[in-house]
Recover the amino acids of this structure.
């Protein structure tokens, strides 16, 4: 399947990079905007930046590169009162601060708020190293701030709609598990498998266990499947117990249950049904006990 591309994201806004400077490249369309120097102190971060977790190792490598070569691709900013707001190039901006640069190259564009939102979000969402939770929050921001549907988000970032939908599901995880995904302790695949569990408490406990055991995604899916199966069995037992507790003391059913318990020396339940029929449940706890019950039954 051919990957779709952006309609108008950053590709018409800033000149192409020389690569390797954080992956924040965009294809320029003529005319190429002019580059100027600005004091780094005059630039403030973008409040709609979708990236919340920065890879410290990668940022350190970028800082080293900037110290030796400078910034090869200018930052994209817009006027904001007596300062400038960063639109694209957050990693370069942070690395330049760490490198102690006082001036940085920029392209200044007077963007409307909606253009800034889309440009900054889409630029980061196309990056391959964006962690799964930041990616999901970026998609949600496009929907909340710009009113995009799942289909529209998919079109703008060049991904399938199902990819967007599956990513957004991660936002329903409890915060502890979202943090594990952000840190890389769990993958998005692990996290999506846990979403089938009933409650946030179940998900948190399962996430800790899966992490401690080093389960693969496939093993995590099997683990969750077993938990769901046990939950269904527990509900059935609960329903049977509720039906049993509904039997009136001293009724014919209760008397028969008592007689059968004494006869088989195990738990016995009569589960009446609305049609006049019902079920007789006789519990056993091992193969040997089952054989004993069969012998008792055969002796009747």
């Amino acid at each position: 399947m051919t990957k779709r591309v952006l309609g108008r994201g950053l590709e018409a806004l800033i000149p192409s990079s020389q690569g390797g400077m954080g992956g924040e490249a965009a294809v320029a369309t003529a005319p190429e905007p002019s580059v100027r120097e600005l004091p780094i102190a005059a630039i403030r971060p973008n409040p709609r930046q979708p990236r919340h977790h920065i890879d410290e190792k990668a940022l350190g490598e970028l800082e080293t590169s900037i110290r030796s070569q400078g910034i090869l691709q200018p930052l994209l900013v817009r006027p904001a009162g007596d300062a400038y707001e960063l639109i694209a190039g957050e990693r370069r901006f942070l690395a330049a601060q760490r490198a102690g640069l006082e001036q940085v190259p920029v392209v200044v564009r007077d963007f409307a708020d909606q253009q800034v939102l889309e440009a900054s979000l889409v630029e980061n969402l196309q990056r391959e190293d964006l962690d799964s939770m930041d990616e999901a929050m970026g998609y949600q921001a496009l929907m909340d701030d710009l009113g995009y549907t799942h289909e529209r988000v998919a079109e703008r970032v060049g991904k399938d709609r199902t990819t967007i939908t599956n990513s957004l599901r991660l936002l329903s995880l409890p915060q502890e598990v979202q943090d594990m995904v952000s840190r890389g302790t769990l993958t998005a695949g692990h996290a999506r498998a846990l979403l089938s569990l009933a409650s946030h408490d179940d998900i948190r406990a399962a996430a800790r266990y899966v992490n401690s055991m080093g389960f693969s995604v496939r093993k995590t899916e099997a683990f969750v499947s077993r938990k769901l199966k046990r939950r269904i069995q527990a509900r059935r037992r609960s329903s049977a117990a509720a039906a049993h507790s509904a039997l009136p003391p001293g009724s014919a059913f209760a008397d028969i249950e008592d007689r059968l318990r004494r006869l088989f020396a195990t738990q016995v339940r009569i589960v009446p049904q609305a049609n006049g029929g019902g079920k007789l449940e006789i519990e056993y706890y091992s193969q040997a006990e089952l054989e004993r019950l069969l012998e008792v039954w055969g002796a009747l």
